[in-house]
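Changelog note: in this version the structure field was regenerated for every chain. One regenerated record is shown below for reference.
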Amino acid sequence: MNILGVILARGGSKGLPNKSARLLLGRPVIQYTFEHAAQSRRLTAIVFSSDAESLKAIARECGVTVIDRPAELATDTATVDDAARHAVETWERRNAATVDAVALLYGNVPVRAPGLIDRAIEHLIDAGADSVRSVAPVTKQHPDWVFRLHGDRMAQLRPNSLYRRQDLEPLFYHDGAVAVVTRAALFAALDMPDDHQAFLGADRRALVQSAEDAVDIDSPIDLFLAEAILRAREAEVSAGE
């Protein structure tokens, strides 16, 4: 199978400006994703889609093929799947080949579990699914434990008497580490413009991992968390040598 790794990052992030270019243990955040993709044994090729010249320069230094993302696909309202389709079509045109599936990797995720990308690809193939996404369990922000505020008055979102974590319904969120989708599902979504999740297809599978297996950088505290996890991993490696 031809499986294209598409790394996505744009320059106009408003939550944490330049988050993919921030330094983390001396390296730009996005460099970690380039390295994760390069370590995969299942990716046929890797491309980086961006509108940011500074990020594209880092990609070239890391030996990653750059695809210039059009301005209309780099706005706050542009969708991930539109950018992914543009990257796929550009790669296919350049290489006179067709991909079978796409591994979407966000450039602001410097922490991934080793081998995660390949496990997601293999799960997609083995299950015959339309998509596979990495997920982690919801814990402190579980819907049974959150509130709406009316002024300073608190109203429980889901009225209940649950106070033990073990009694909560198991729920999961996509942690952003990897999403693998078939080309067919990605492009079939063009016929369903009102469904922003359509590119994931009908048969959507999960790859469950721990919360510490992935960190996406959206705020300064995420940088501290990512640094702590990466340092802990380095210490484990050093201890095992």
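Spot check on this record: The chain has a mean pLDDT of 94. The domain at 3-138+173-240 is CATH 3.90.550.10 (Spore Coat Polysaccharide Biosynthesis Protein SpsA; Chain A).
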